[in-house]
Amino acid sequence: MKKTLMIMSGVLLLSLAACNANKVPEATKEETTEAQERELVGSAEGFGGTITVTLTMKGDDIVKASIEGNDETPEVGGAALPELEKQLVEKDGYEIDGVSGATYTSEGVMNAAKDALGLFDTEAPKETTKG
Asked: pLDDT digit string (tens) for 62-91?
């Protein structure tokens, strides 16, 4: 009887351990399901000077954008910056519509966003010669 009880207890423990082996610990589960926010920063030339774009990312999504363009014309490029921030978040990328009348500033913001995302190639294509 004692031997049977010991064997059954062992089987019960092994089955409980096997059932628990596939479960993810609670702390790990929270970390993997909740993407952490990170900031990416890039810069490019606008109309008046350097434009800096800071993108707050959650996973692959842009959840916030802030643009600094202190040298842009305040009434044109400077006034367009809040709209361009909004467009970056809405489009979830650098391919935005831009703002009419602030073409150079809009292009600078797109290029700075590309730079932040690691997509802006500043090098000219390399020429190859046959020889």
From this structure: 999 999 999 999 999 999 999 999 999 999
pLDDT in tens, 24-62: 444 444 444 457 999 999 999 999 999 999 999 999 999
The answer for residues whose C-beta is within 8 angstroms of residue 40's C-beta and 6 or more apart is 54, 55, 57, 116, 117, 118
Whole-angstrom CA distances from 58 to 40, 63, 74, 112, 128 are: 11, 6, 31, 19, 41
Question: Which pTM does this prediction carry?
Answer: 0.67
Alpha-carbon distance 56 to 118, whole Å?
Answer: 14
Q: Are residues 53 and 43 in contact, defined by beta-carbon separation less than 8 angstroms?
A: yes
Closest alpha carbon to 72 in 90, 48, 42: 48
Look at residue 1 and give its three-state secondary structure.
coil
